Amino acid sequence: MSGVPTSLHLGPFVFHLYGLGLGIAAYVAFAYSERRLRRHGIDTTRFARYTVALLVSGLVGARLANIVTNWSYYSGHPARWIAVWQGGISSFGGIGLALPVGLLLQRRWWPATRLAAFTDALLPALVAGWALGRVLGPQFMVNGGGHVTTSWFGMHYSGQVGKRVPVPLIQGAEDGSLWLILLWIEAKWTSRRVGSLSAVTMIVWGVVRTFDEHWLLGQESHSGSIGVQVAGLALALVGALTLWRTQRRHGRRDDHALTPH
User: Fold this and answer.
1) Which of 25, 139, 145, 190 has the most other CB atoms within 10 Å of its CB?
2) What are phi and psi for residue 16, nearest 5 degrees?
3) Largest CA distance in the chain
4) 205-245 residue pLDDT tens
């Protein structure tokens, strides 16, 4: 049986569905992020430039991380370094480079906006874009599946033998569920607790990504399985510490407000 298609041919043109899907997801995330920032009263004049910087640094970091952790595959084959349409980008590699770039530019371009308020407005949109990206991106790349499986939900992927766990679809459903949870939390809980939404995002996404890497991908992953799991747990830990500090800070403010003067 043939695998999931990886390209679309229109006359002399070839469109790699992996990159096309990621491009669509990136645009949706941009438009949704801009809308959320405006709703939170944050100026979006420079947001297009900010988005380009995040996308470029994220893609570069994601590709470099994959090359480093799979050097035996890329060594001696420079052409493979840029063949991103064949797959091979690391989520945490992208985050690792895009994060400092994003923090630097946020302080430079939005100095009057608290970082926690900025990320609370931005992260739900990024999670939604990530969910769409998993379905439209890795689902259509070479070696896009997870472990071999004989279960009914297994799918055939280009470059892989046998039916595979459809990890991109599973991760898309996970991230989509996280997005809905974040919207519920935002509506019910975080109106006075700036930073809580960002902390919950880090905790849930870090834990789920670690689980996926260990149980669904494991050593068949081409992005440094152990490194991904460690990074996921580290992200969740940072999120837990952030949530604790946020709740503690707001608890003190509530106590102060209730104290008679």
Assistant:
1) 145
2) -80, 120
3) 77
4) 999 999 998 888 755 444 467 888 888 999 999 999 999 99
